[in-house]
Input
Amino acid sequence: MSLVDTVKNAFVPIHREGYPFIAAFGAGTLFLGYFSSILFWIGLILTAWCAYFFRDPERVTPVDDSLVVSPADGVISAVGPAVPPRELGLGNAEMTRISVFMNVFSCHVNRAPVRGKISRIEHRPGKFLNAELDKASTENERNGLVIDSPNGTVAAVQIAGLVARRIVCWAETGGSIAIGERFGLIRFG
Output
């Protein structure tokens, strides 16, 4: 194993969406360090946090059509019946909703909960309330994917929050997606 491979394996990959932010935090750290060593160390900690926020670790996802995996790192904050967002065109029948809250220390890269074909992607502008609040799921900016899987239709909804306010989605309507495949992230900016 080469030295380059050793270094690559020692660090968690950073998603390219984070590079400009990490560079800005780093430049700010150097600027602050010119005036004060204490400010330098505070800036260095914030720069390290920024890199941690944009980490993009590899995941080993079970390949089983009978499973639905979490589309995000975080804490399951609610499980229960809910009517899907109107813009997804899934009707008014309640479906099981599993809400995953990502805090500022969670990995913010989102992955497909099932394998299937993406039949619809809808973005809806909104507020930027704390994503942990119940009303955030209806009032905040969000982006929804409808995935037609072998076992039925599944929706994955990215919801912006107070800090992570920008939703990025690379998936395309009509495209196929594998279980655990990256489809977007929620970042600040």
In short: The mean pLDDT is 92.
